[in-house]
Amino acid sequence: MTRQYHLICPFCHSDDVKNWHEVDDHKVSGERFHIFDCNNCGLRYTQDPPVEADAGPYYDSPNYVSHSDNRSGIMFRLYHGVRKYMLNKKRRLIGRYSSGKKIIDLGSGTGYFLDNMKRHGYEVTGIEINEGARNFSKDAFSLEVYPPELLAKGEITKRFHIATMWHVLEHIYQPETFLRQLHGILEDDALLVIAVPNYRSSDATHYGSYWAGYDVPRHLWHFDQNTITALLKKCGYNYLTTHRLPFDSFYVSMLSEKYRKNALYLLSGLMHGAFSWIASLFNINRTSSLIYFFHKNEEI
Q1: Within its chain, how far is the Cα of 246 from the centroid?
Q2: Phi-psi label, residue 25: left if phi above 0, alpha if psi -120 to 50, beta otherwise
Q3: Would strands 160-166 and 145-146 be described as parallel, antiparallel, or unpaired?
Q4: Which CATH class is domain 17-296?
Q5: What is the pLDDT of residue 68?
Q6: 3-state secondary structure (DSSP) of residue 113
Q7: How far apart are CA 4 and CA 164, in angstroms?
Q8: Which parts of the chain have pLDDT scores under 50?
Q9: 3-state secondary structure 237-279
Q10: What is the pLDDT of residue 60?
Q11: pLDDT at site 81
């Protein structure tokens, strides 16, 4: 298997990088990966992940929740139970910052978000790499969902008022190229919504290398607010505002406790998730996952 190694920071190209920690793939392979820190721009990135062509097996698991409709086990039932509330919350947030009705969801998974938007009057399109998830969203919700290579080839001719990426950007091998390609199918002043884990969160600090938000090697990039806003500015998007994903601290903390092989992982995860959530009320940058809102800039 071919691996991807970065001698310099992939975002700012500084050579002031260091090995921060070793982190295990608890979800699929059990392999150990290194996370590097850039002292110049603050990016953390996974070192030696498989190249994109070899990444498929690391997603081939019933534990990968966005690509399945698995409802067995407490963790999955909790995830699906919270989802309905969050779908409505996401829709209301988007409506606060855009009156547009044409939306594209990048990494649309099994399609629940787009189905919710469609039922509330939006014209929806999805981009999803996983064929099984694409087929599920088409069969269950009659959604229009395309593989990502159509975006790369310039074969998507529609233009959109809104684009969303819910825990997707951290998976993209060439994020700058991807964001510039997306720029070309958005209307002027379109809204771009990006949710990613925040490695400066309270739960990330508490769990260290066990923090489920690292999710190596599937998560290639590990962001804080400075790194993601700098990347988006370079790709033609103006920062607007930030909101919390309130339940991520609980879900991520429970997973992290499970990775630490804590028999009481549900209770311990709920307790520390609550602590992290309370901390985030006083400092949004301590939130487990953040939603960033951007407007498309006419110039790149």
Answers
A1: 15
A2: beta
A3: unpaired
A4: alpha beta
A5: 47
A6: helix
A7: 27
A8: 67-68
A9: EEEEEEEECCCHHHHHHHHHHHHCCCCCHHHHHHHHHHHHHHH
A10: 79
A11: 65
User: What does the pLDDT read at residue 238?
Assistant: 97
Q: Which residue has the tokens 């909101």?
A: 243
Return the structure tokens found at 61.
């698991």
Neighbours of 15 (CB within 10 A): 10
Q: Are 256 and 211 in contact (CB under 8 A)?
A: yes
Give me the long-range contacts of 83-91 (CB less than 8 A, separation at least 24): 83/112, 86/245, 86/247, 87/112, 87/113, 87/116, 88/116, 90/164, 90/166, 90/193, 90/291, 91/116, 91/117, 91/120
DSSP string spanning 144-205? -EE-THHHHTT-----EEEEEEES-GGG-SSHHHHHHHHHTTEEEEEEEEEEEEBTTSHHHH
pLDDT of residue 84: 81
User: Is-above-0.90 flag for pTM?
Assistant: yes
pLDDT value at position 69? Answer: 55
Domain parsing of the chain, residue ranges: 17-296
Dist. CA 1–CA 77, nearest whole Å: 35
Coil vs helix vs strand at 110: coil
